[in-house]
């Protein structure tokens, strides 16, 4: 055959992803190009698989971004409470609390989010 499966799949994945084509139009194009039914089925399955993989990757990236924001928020809360505790001690004397738990946990969550993003 005079085509590369990989190139065709990548081309159609981009077209379907942008919304300019749907599966029935792709099947019609394959038929017009003289691609037999078995090959057409294989190509459509690969296109579908790649689209699903792209959607899953985007979902993981978004989940990672959310984890980073939550982690940084938790760490910021720990830092703010530590500073407030220190300011109170500075004004009145005594001892202050170091909120290292939220800070370390927040940083850990943010790192996990970054790893999830890939």
Automatic annotation (TrEMBL):
Keyword entries, A-Z: Membrane, Transmembrane, Transmembrane helix
Bilayer-crossing regions: 67-87, 93-113
Protein name listed in UniProt: DUF2335 domain-containing protein
Organism: Aequorivita marisscotiae
């Amino acid at each position: 055959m005079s085509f590369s499966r990989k190139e065709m799949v990548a081309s159609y994945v981009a077209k379907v992803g942008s919304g300019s084509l749907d599966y029935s139009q792709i099947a019609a194009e394959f038929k017009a190009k003289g691609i037999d039914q078995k090959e057409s089925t294989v190509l459509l399955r690969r296109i579908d698989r790649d689209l699903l993989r792209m959607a899953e990757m985007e979902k993981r990236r978004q989940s990672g971004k959310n984890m980073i924001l939550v982690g940084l928020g938790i760490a910021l809360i720990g830092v703010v409470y530590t500073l407030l505790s220190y300011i109170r001690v500075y004004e009145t004397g005594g001892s202050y609390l170091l909120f290292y738990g939220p800070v370390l946990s927040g940083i850990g969550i943010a790192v996990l989010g970054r790893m999830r993003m890939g």
